[in-house]
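Reminder to self: tokens first, then the designed residues, so the page reads top to bottom the way the pipeline ran.
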């Protein structure tokens, strides 16, 4: 008698004379989500020289190679496959299936088709996990993404390796059970020793430490622009010479951004889970992605075979920081235009379309010229005007139009970098990291009360007419700016959105001409 309690000969004796089809529910990862897959199993017991296993339904090489793992795992747990042909079909058959995530439902489907398991014991639960040749279960990515898909289909029970089950347990309404070995799953299904339900670990003591904004000396205007960007969800471009603090300031964005809501935490964690980067619980902070400028088109936007999420999706509900913006390839930067407006990216490949979430906040930094010192108060620039123009033209006008805030920075003075003891305390008390975060949170609260979940950066024309109407002096100011700077329709609407955020930061109900003037001043025409 093997340790799982099933007799070694149960396969031949347990089958009914008619051919029986069993069904086991599994899942495959697709982009940042998951699709449920039904494994259909049927055993043809006509005499053959050996056991032939046929897997259909567009499996990838990993799934096709699972036939060896499947046979070894069954044999190691006392479930012998007699001679005959075992059919395993993956439904829906027209969708490509990939990954080792289907190992467990394939093994269970094979065991049930051979008569070792009651088919009804497999109903109502979803199974996922990689199975070793001895039956040990190994964790797979995507537990939370699969659990969300299962909840949508009304499946409340999920069985997986402990680490994967822990991910799934964070989804309300899902009962997740952790199993370390195939024999544990078999005992659970046969009414023997029950698996323990996994509960999410308590995270009350977990703290998130963001870099302190006060570490950045000086740069009060840039800090204010950072708070405006965080409050309204606006794009931000920092322009300045080397050592001005552009990168340092951009990496402090998390210090002023509001904490993510529960729905946003689930979204962030779903993306990380499907990418195999589960943070060990629900994400507590917004993602900050800073890819190198040598990144490829597929690396930034997504793609490949099978299609995978890119950096803009990994930055979903967070920040995408592009340092040395003109050094990125032009076609890579141009790919950002549609996701910046729609909050998603549609990737089309042969026989497959993926709609990936990409609601990120763009923060970028660049030098004013190739040598970096144009406009520097002490170091002369060595770049000819034609070279400077060519350098700045690497960033297209349509992309710049989608970046609402463009701030020029100068290097901090010696007194700002090394304050004396007498001037050690900050001279501008409203610009500390704590104060700015509180300002931003109050501004976000005003937006929620006024327009729901939509941030100011997402307001369309009709909403701007309602929440930021142009009248009197403000209308004249915008008309004059549009003529003198040749502002596009998108740029003009961006001015109004930023002005609405400035009014929210100051706690004012209506947009004033001063807010429009500040918005215009924060949109440098240098690029």
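Designed residues (527 positions):
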């Amino acid at each position: 008698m093997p340790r799982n309690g099933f007799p070694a000969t149960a396969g031949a004796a347990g089958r009914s004379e008619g051919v029986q089809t069993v069904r086991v529910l599994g899942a495959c990862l697709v982009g940042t989500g998951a699709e449920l897959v039904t494994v259909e199993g049927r055993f043809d017991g006509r005499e053959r020289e050996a056991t032939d296993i046929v897997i259909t339904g567009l499996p990838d090489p990993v799934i096709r190679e699972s036939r060896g793992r499947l046979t070894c795992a069954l044999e190691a747990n006392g479930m012998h496959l007699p001679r005959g042909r075992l059919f395993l079909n993956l439904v829906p058959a027209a969708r490509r299936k990939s990954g080792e995530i289907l190992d467990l439902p394939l093994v269970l489907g094979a065991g049930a088709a051979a008569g070792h398991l009651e088919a009804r014991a497999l109903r109502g639960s979803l199974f996922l996990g990689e199975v070793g040749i001895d039956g040990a279960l190994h964790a797979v990515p995507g537990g939370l993404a699969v659990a969300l898909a299962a909840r949508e289909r009304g499946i409340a029970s999920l069985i997986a390796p402990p680490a994967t089950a822990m991910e799934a347990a964070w989804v309300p309404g899902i009962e997740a059970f952790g199993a370390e070995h195939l024999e544990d799953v078999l005992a659970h299904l046969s009414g023997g020793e029950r698996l323990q339900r996994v509960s999410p670990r308590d995270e009350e003591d977990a703290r998130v430490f963001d870099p302190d904004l006060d570490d950045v000396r000086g740069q009060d205007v840039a800090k204010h622009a950072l708070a405006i960007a965080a409050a309204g969800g606006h794009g931000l471009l920092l322009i300045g010479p080397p050592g001005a603090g552009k990168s340092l300031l951009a990496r402090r964005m998390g210090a002023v951004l509001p904490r993510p809501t529960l729905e946003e935490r689930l979204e962030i964690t779903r993306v990380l889970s499907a990418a195999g980067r589960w943070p060990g619980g629900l994400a507590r902070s917004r993602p900050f992605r800073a890819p190198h400028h040598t990144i490829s088109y597929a690396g930034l936007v997504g793609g490949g075979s099978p299609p995978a999420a890119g950096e803009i999706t990994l930055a979903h509900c967070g920040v995408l920081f592009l340092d040395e913006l003109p050094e990125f390839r032009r076609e890579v930067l141009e790919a950002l235009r549609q996701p910046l407006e729609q909050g998603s990216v549609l990737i089309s490949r042969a026989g497959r379309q993926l709609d990936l979430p990409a609601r990120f906040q763009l923060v970028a930094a660049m030098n004013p010229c190739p040598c970096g010192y144009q406009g520097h108060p002490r170091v002369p620039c060595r770049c000819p005007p034609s070279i400077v123009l060519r350098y700045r033209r690497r960033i297209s006008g349509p992309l710049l139009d989608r970046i609402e805030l463009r701030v020029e920075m100068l290097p901090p003075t010696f007194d700002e970098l090394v304050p004396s003891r007498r001037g050690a305390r900050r001279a501008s008390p409203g610009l500390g990291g704590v104060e700015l975060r509180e300002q931003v949170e109050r501004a976000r609260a005003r937006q929620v009360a006024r327009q729901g979940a939509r941030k100011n950066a997402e307001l369309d024309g009709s909403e701007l007419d309602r929440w930021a109407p142009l009248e009197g002096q403000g209308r004249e100011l915008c008309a004059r700016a549009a003529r003198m700077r040749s502002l596009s329709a998108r740029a003009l609407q961006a001015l109004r959105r930023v002005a609405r955020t400035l009014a929210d930061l100051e706690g004012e109900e209506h947009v004033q001409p001063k807010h429009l003037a500040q918005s215009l001043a924060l949109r440098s025409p240098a690029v």
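Residues 1-18, 425-430 have pLDDT under 50 and may be disordered.
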